[in-house]
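Need residues for this backbone.
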């Protein structure tokens, strides 16, 4: 019993050390690539100083780290078991009657724990830093502001007018079938940011490149209010632009997503992206366990056939296939071609089934 516990702790430690080493290497490489890309994008921007771009790369780093973590688990497991095999440690363990499932269990449990911590602790930090990164990216590299804000108080939109001023639109309700705001307030600000006029209306509908404002009253400083059955306010906003301007799922933490999904649905917006992202996060610990099984499949084959080169090729191929499958299934889920649950859990489920079936074949014939 003591021997089995000691072996489990040793294998878990080896797995975690190799996972951390691979993860650190991959994160360092992606950080350098992101920084170089930001330098390229900010070459013609006066505000894009080297220190600012370095800050942006650092803010983006946790989000990138989340994306490479499954592959770090895969390659870390392969290298850990390859080293144990090369040193004949697994050979001795198997000769002593220890099955592959027994020495895989510690690594799988550590991978599960890493996945839980990554989702519940690391993800909120990464989401907060990604939100800061996107604000800097929008302000410095894209020279654009956020045209939309959604809260329990309603929908806030911002656009420019032909005189260079700003127009702020607020509506307390939105129709699910079309962009229809009720109990609308429209605020007009001049170039200096000073209040110029306000419109209070029963509703506003976005159609044909303009807002159709119905049953409205216009108020100007020092003038009596004017009433109109309807007004047209030109705009460059479209329904698709407004939905794209909603907070990205990557900037919402795991704990905030359920509430924001509920808010989106109550406001009539599609919550497909956010619901899919939330389920992907839920499936991540299972995906990490599946990566351990897949990596062990290749490691056990190397034990019997030899060849570190084949190990590397097999790992790269497995990682590429995983990325390719995840990307396709995610796109299908995002376009609502397949259910959200199927899109989110398919990569983890398929990897788990593949790894378990291959291990059963290798161990039990």
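Answer:
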């Amino acid at each position: 019993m003591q021997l089995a516990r000691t072996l489990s702790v040793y294998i878990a430690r080896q797995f975690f050390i190799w996972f951390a080493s691979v993860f650190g290497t991959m994160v360092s490489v992606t950080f350098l690539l992101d920084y170089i890309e930001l330098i390229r994008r900010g070459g013609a921007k006066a505000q894009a100083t080297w220190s600012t771009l370095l800050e942006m790369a650092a803010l983006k780093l946790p989000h990138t780290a989340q994306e490479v973590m499954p592959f770090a688990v895969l390659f870390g497991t392969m290298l850990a078991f390859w080293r144990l095999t090369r040193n004949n440690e697994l050979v001795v363990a198997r000769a002593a009657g220890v099955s592959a499932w027994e020495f895989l269990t510690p690594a799988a449990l550590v991978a599960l724990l890493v996945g839980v911590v990554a989702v519940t602790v690391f993800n909120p930090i990464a989401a907060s830093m990604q939100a800061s990164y996107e604000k800097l990216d929008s302000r410095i590299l894209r020279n654009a502001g956020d045209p939309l804000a959604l809260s329990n108080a309603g929908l806030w939109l911002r656009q420019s007018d032909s005189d260079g001023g700003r127009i702020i639109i607020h509506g307390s309700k939105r129709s699910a079938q079309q962009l229809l705001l009720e109990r609308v307030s429209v605020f007009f600000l001049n170039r200096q940011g000073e209040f110029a006029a306000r419109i209070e209306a029963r509703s506003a509908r976005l159609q044909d490149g303009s807002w159709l404002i119905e049953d409205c009253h216009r108020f100007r400083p020092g003038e009596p209010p004017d009433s109109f059955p309807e007004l047209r306010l030109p705009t460059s906003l479209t329904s698709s632009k407004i939905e794209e301007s909603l907070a990205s799922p990557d900037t919402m933490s795991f704990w905030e997503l359920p509430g924001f999904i509920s808010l989106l649905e109550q406001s009539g917006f599609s919550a497909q992206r956010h619901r899919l992202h939330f389920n992907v996060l839920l499936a991540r610990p299972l995906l990490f366990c599946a990566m351990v099984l897949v990596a062990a499949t290749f490691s056990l084959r190397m034990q019997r056939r030899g060849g570190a080169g084949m190990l590397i090729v097999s790992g790269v191929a497995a990682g590429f296939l995983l990325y390719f499958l995840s990307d396709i299934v995610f796109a299908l889920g995002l376009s609502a071609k397949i259910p959200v649950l199927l899109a989110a859990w398919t990569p983890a489920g398929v990897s788990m089934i593949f790894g378990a079936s291959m291990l059963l074949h290798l161990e039990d014939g």
